[in-house]
Write a structure and sequence with these properties.
Length: 224
């Protein structure tokens, strides 16, 4: 899953599942269990690599799953296909997110909605029209591209329709453009009846898949 789950307590299917708080976000959990597990190279060549994680249910996430990252280098960028499959025998809440860092620069995006947040980076549950205020971190929705301009270059992030949400986050000398299939704490907000959180449920054996692309372009050039 993407971003935080409040107090590391996930409400799903009429039950509350205790997760493990993340040391950088306590008492909340953060960014799902896959980011702190070893991935294995399943295939590679001069322009691509497939990384795999086969996950058994544990205290960080009480559902088994299989995840894959398929990276492909292209002439002017990088493509990534993310897949997540429920490997268990019961339904599983599910989400995808990718958190690349870029050198800080001038950021722009075309998101049509934003979600205000609390000081602990949890959304309030309100969905408001517009791109949001000037802030170091923004939770955005309904977008088609985001970009960073720096030193005469433009780095453009796009994603397939599964990635309905976007986070723009300043991290010191870096700028993060994070494509996500759901809102931070979206599972719990959905349990409270909030709409448009991007909450997904995968049946046993069902898969969620999406693609993210990064393109590098020199400003003033016709190339894309």
């Amino acid at each position: 899953y993407h971003n935080r789950i409040e107090n590391a307590q996930l409400r799903f299917g009429g039950a509350t599942h205790a997760l493990t708080p993340h040391p950088d976000a306590a008492p909340h959990s953060l960014h799902g269990p896959a980011q702190r597990r070893p991935w294995h190279v399943r295939a590679q060549d001069g322009a691509s690599a497939v990384l795999a994680l086969d996950y058994a249910a544990d205290a960080d996430w009480p559902w088994a799953f299989q995840a894959r990252q398929h990276f492909t280098l292209e002439e002017n960028g990088l493509g990534l296909v993310l897949t997540l499959r429920n490997a268990g025998s019961v339904p599983m809440p599910a989400g995808l997110g990718w958190h690349p860092y870029f050198p800080a620069g001038s950021v722009a995006h075309d998101a049509r909605f934003h979600w205000p947040m609390r000081p602990d980076y949890l959304p309030t549950g309100e969905r408001q029209a517009g791109p949001g205020p000037a802030a170091a971190t923004l939770y955005l929705e309904h977008w088609s591209q985001a970009l960073v301009k720096r030193d005469g270059w433009e780095t453009v992030l796009t994603a397939s329709p599964e990635f309905t949400h976007l986070v723009v986050h300043e991290a010191g000398p870096y700028q993060c453009l994070e494509a996500a299939t759901h809102l931070a704490n979206g599972f719990n907000l959905a349990a409270d009846g909030t709409a448009q959180t991007g909450m997904r449920v995968l049946a046993p054996g069902e898969m969620l898949e999406g693609r993210v692309d990064i393109r590098l372009r020199r400003l003033g050039s016709e190339a894309s």
